[in-house]
Fold:
Amino acid sequence: MTSRTPKILMLHRVLPHYDPDNYYFQRGTAISWQRFIQLLDHIEKQGFQTRPISALSDSPQPDSIYLTFDDGYADNASVFDELLRRNMTATLYPAMDFVRTGFSPIDDMAWHLMVASSLPDEIKQSLINGRLKKLLRKLSASRYRSLRQSWFHIETDAPSVFLTESQLVHYVHRGIELGFHGVSHRPLTALNEKEIKHELELGMAWLRQLSPSPIHSICYPHGKYNALVLCITRCYLHIHLTVDTPTTDSQVYSRIFFQEMGSLP
Ligand SMILES: [Zn+2]
Structure:
């Protein structure tokens, strides 16, 4: 019997050191470099083969493990260098607007909260527990900037934490696969049919410019999908990924949220 639950790991950032005060470690969206190396050593020791997400369409190989990185963070450059050095691979899901503008509302707010002690502690708590994040993820960058100004009197943007397009091209040509993860990174379930199609047309055209190989997969921003989203996205992409929650559709793959603490896959 072949397993219907392939080992697909969900990662975001890989930062030099573990820091319990860092927003990304608190949200579980960063692991330390040490933890990353522990994972790669484990993969080698177990005899697993890292495969790109497109390989999910082939007949399943029991030794497969799939590493996925969401959002396109700049620290992934050293990650890919290390993977390629070990003849390993991964699939990257960059959000188009984050890469092209070097800006994301949630990452901007996280940076301001980490550097500015003047911001209220409740704001930090609500970003970490997801309440503020839920609000921010639906905002356009311009709406966010205007609210940031009126709420906190902050005018400057955080420095970019994202890879550039030329870095994406560099890694794609060396064997890192790209998949679709939205243009604005807003949940597709918050958009209407026309807006979902617009994200797909725009985002897919962008990915095709960057990648010589076809784009096969979508990783839903924030893991969010519903019947309408599935129906539309199926016309564009045949492999569908969500976060670590159980899937409500047999054609959507759930991922293992790989964090600093916890067992190895
Ligand atoms: Zn994302």
Remarks:
- Residues 105-152 form one domain.
- The two ends are 20 Å apart (CA to CA).
